[in-house]
Design a protein that fits this description.
37% of the residues lie in helices and 28% in strands. It contains 16 helices and 21 strands. The strands form 4 sheets. It has a 6-stranded antiparallel β-sheet, with helices on one face. It has a 5-stranded antiparallel β-sheet with strand order 2-1-5-4-3.
Length: 593
């Protein structure tokens, strides 16, 4: 009894209906292709041009008419053909055709006004001639080739014949999947086609493969695709039969003949010789079929062979033959080894990544312990929010800095070290701690940014390190914000319920150039104004550019006006989906008192 529950009738019926629908669509497409192929042949014959040119003309007609290409093709009528006139066929042509024991015809070229060969006329056909659509020699003689057999246009045979006529090089196509088209009906067949130039014409022969030939051809193709080989050793006569794939599998020249059974160990790698001895013992002594696998020395290196072998016994039970089916499984074994190595590397990388994540998180928690909460500074209330990325692998280098410095000003900065993981966090630490020390010099924001750029460039020799930042000072007496932009998203000013990006002097990202100067922008603020600094994780979304993200932030800010910077940040992130952002998110909202 099967362990699987039986299929319900409705399930099998639905599956059958879907398959039937797919086949119906395919057959409809095949019919459309037949219509196009026959129309191309008709148009080429009517206009005395080559099939490719006729296909282009058909496409132009569809474009100019505005109709579907198939509908235009249906309107191409069969070209008018005069009844074939009696042909003056040389005796040698008839003799040559009758000597061929397959369908054969002799073609003469048809040229256009420029002298190019565009088609052929069937001068004569032998008594065996019969197309896949059933047209015989009497109906073929005297007609143009594409008119008598439109399928030669779509299959490319006409182009092959023209190439043979012009170059003199014969062509042989076998097996060839040929589809004859007559009155938009399909007549598919598998053919063996040959063409050669004889005097001022072409001798063309074709033969339709029968079922047995198709099976043999299919089996040979299956052997090549599956890399299968078959062999038989006659133990009494010492006669050996091998399929062509066996020669390739064992790296043996066909001129040397098959390998004797007793010579098999000579090509097996030494480590696998016990496997071969056990195989022979099972076949010859225990008279049992055996399936095994071993490696052989091939001219292209070591190959892995999977061998299924069996003894053929006589009436007394003695082995008289040994047959085997061999498959080259080298690629499978290499793939398995590669997968094993990749799996081990993945585990190792995962362990390293987990350790890096642990160190990164600890480092970030140490550097930026404040992820939310109000900071009270002279004439300023600052709300800060830092949210790491949704995935640990996306932990980045976002940072902020707010500090009251001895000269009375307030350092108000935000930045982003490029990259993710421990490297970005280390760069972030360098930028943030470096700026904290430089700020006590009392230098301007532009000078601080220049120094910070020098620190990043010269503090990481041999490694390209970059980052962005907004660095500025808030003067509580004048209520001004003097700031510089080092390639960072522009700050936002919210005043009287309206939000807009600040206009400022753009600057180069940090670490890009050895010597960089940064200009400052002075922004005058009023009580109640809110200055919003943020990193790109707030405004960047997959599939949208940065400008769209900033516009969304401005729109969200119109609805997030309030006295509490913390509540404003909550509102902004909720409207922008910042709580679930893939990248780090850092927002600083400073309200002027």
């Amino acid at each position: 009894m099967s362990k699987y529950p039986p299929f319900g009738r409705y399930e099998t019926g639905a599956a059958t209906a879907r398959v039937r629908e797919q086949l119906a669509r395919l057959r409809h497409r095949m019919r459309n292709e037949a219509i196009l192929d026959e129309a191309t042949a008709r148009l080429a014959t009517e206009m005395n041009i080559r099939p490719g040119e006729a296909a282009e003309q058909l496409a132009r007609m569809a474009q100019h008419s505005g109709l579907d290409l198939v509908e235009v093709a249906k309107g191409i009528e069969r070209p008018h053909e005069e009844p074939p006139a009696p042909q003056d066929v040389p005796v040698w042509v008839r003799s040559m055709l009758e000597a061929v024991h397959a369908s054969a015809m002799y073609l003469t070229p048809v040229t256009d006004d420029a002298g190019r060969v565009v088609d052929f006329r069937i001068l004569a056909a032998n008594r065996h001639a019969r197309t896949p659509a059933g047209i015989t020699a009497d109906e073929l003689s005297g007609r143009r080739l594409m008119a008598a057999s439109p399928g030669v246009a779509g299959s490319g045979l006409v182009d092959d014949y023209i190439g043979v006529y012009e170059s003199g090089e014969p062509v042989h196509r076998e097996p060839m999947e040929f589809v004859e088209v007559v009155d938009y009906l399909l007549w598919p067949a598998t053919l063996s086609v040959r063409a050669a130039r004889v005097e001022d014409g072409l001798l063309v022969t074709w033969r339709q493969l029968d079922d047995e030939e198709l099976l043999v051809s299919g089996w040979e193709r299956a052997q090549r695709l599956a890399e299968l080989g078959w062999g038989e050793w006659n133990l009494a006569t010492e006669r050996t039969l091998w399929t062509p794939q066996m020669y390739e599998m064992f790296g043996r020249d066909r001129a040397d003949g098959p390998m004797a059974l007793e010579d098999l160990p000579s090509v097996v790698v030494p480590e696998d010789l016990p496997i071969v001895e056990d195989q022979m013992r099972s076949l010859l002594q225990y008279r049992e079929a055996v399936e095994t696998e071993y490696r052989i020395q091939h001219r292209h290196g070591v190959r892995h062979l999977s061998i299924l072998s069996e003894p053929i016994l006589d009436g007394d039970g003695l082995p008289v033959k040994v047959r085997c089916l061999a498959q080259d499984v080298t690629r499978s074994r290499r793939r398995e080894r590669a997968l094993a190595v990749a799996h081990e590397q993945t585990l190792s990388q995962r362990r390293r990544a987990e350790e890096e994540h642990r160190v990164t998180v600890q480092l970030q928690n140490t550097i930026l312990p404040l992820r939310r909460g109000l900071v009270h500074l002279p004439n300023l209330t600052v709300g800060v929010r830092y949210l790491p990325g949704e995935h640990l692998a996306r932990l980045g280098g976002d940072w902020f800095k707010t500090r009251h410095i001895p000269d009375g000003r307030v350092l108000l900065c935000i930045g982003d070290a490029m990259g993710h993981g421990l490297t970005a966090t280390s760069i972030m630490l360098q930028m943030r701690s470096g700026l904290a020390g430089l700020a006590y010099t009392g230098a301007s924001a532009g000078q601080l940014t220049t120094w910070l750029n020098d620190l990043i460039v010269h503090g990481n020799e041999g490694v390209t390190v970059t980052g962005t930042a907004i660095i500025g000072h808030f003067d509580p007496r004048e209520r001004t914000y003097c700031w510089t932009n080092a390639g960072h998203p522009t700050p936002l000013l919210i005043r009287d319920g309206r939000a807009e990006p600040l206009s400022g002097q753009p600057g180069m990202i940090l670490g890009a150039f050895d010597a960089a100067e940064y200009r400052t922008t002075l922004t005058r603020l009023e009580p109640g104004d809110v200055l919003v600094l943020y990193t790109d994780g707030v405004v960047e979304r997959r599939g949208a550019d940065l400008e769209e993200g900033i516009a969304a932030l401005v729109q969200a800010a119109h609805f997030c006006v309030g006295d509490d910077p913390e509540e404003m940040i909550d509102c902004l992130l909720r409207r922008l989906g910042g709580d679930s952002a893939e990248d780090d998110v850092c927002v600083l909202a400073a309200r002027v008192l």
